[in-house]
Design a protein that fits this description.
Order of helices and strands: EEHHHHHHH
Shape: globular
Largest sheet: 2 strands, antiparallel
Radius of gyration: 16 Å
Distance between the termini: 38 Å
Number of helices: 7
Helix content: 40-55%
Structural class: mainly alpha
Number of domains: 1
Strand content: under 5%
Length: 186
């Protein structure tokens, strides 16, 4: 587990830690946020997800981790980790990307979580697929490594996603499930 001399105090009284598990969870969150950005088609959201994806790729490289892998789906640009509409060879020129990289790596991860997690949860919520349990597993990992997800509750009132097939499929405990509003239908 990677830790830093001056960890950011987040979560319930413990410092957040950049670990392989937290980075792996964030890559799961990233692909769902990418798909939600493409589904929504809003230029501003696509730009923020693209900047966050770029910053995550830089962070993974700095930490010596496996890079983000392109997926074959209609919701990403062909052979890319970015939402549709982001040009090949993308390099962000906006303030978000500068802000993300101009920080301690643990602070950077927290900022990436704040940007990407709400979109990933929205993408996963109510789907009849593995998306809800994948999102919830990643959320659980980020919480147990000390990251604060309270900012990601805005709008939804929760960090958890429901599966359209019901409780047996979303991987939530009864206590976690009690905090979730009814899922939207896809």
């Amino acid at each position: 587990m990677l830790t830093y001399a001056n960890p950011v105090p987040t979560g319930p009284g413990k410092p957040a830690q950049m670990s392989a598990a937290a980075l792996a969870a964030l890559t799961q969150i990233q692909w769902m946020a990418c798909r939600q950005a493409t589904d929504g088609g809003e230029e501003g959201i696509i730009a923020r997800v693209a900047a966050a994806t770029w910053a995550l790729a830089v962070t993974l490289d700095e930490q010596g981790c496996q890079p983000l892998q392109p997926t074959r789906t209609a919701r990403t640009a062909a052979g890319s980790v970015y939402p549709i509409g982001v040009p090949a060879g993308y390099r962000p020129r906006d303030q978000i990307a500068v802000m993300l990289l101009d920080s301690d790596p643990t602070v950077r991860l927290q900022r990436l979580i704040d940007l990407l997690h709400p979109l990933a949860r929205r993408y996963a919520d109510g789907r009849a697929s593995a998306a809800a349990s994948t999102c919830n597993d990643a959320t659980r990992t980020l919480l147990t490594t000390g990251f604060d997800l309270s900012a990601t509750e805005v709008g939804a009132g929760t960090v958890w996603a429901r599966d359209a097939h019901g409780p047996a499929y979303d991987g939530l405990s009864p206590q976690q499930r009690a905090t979730v509003r009814p899922a939207r239908q896809h």
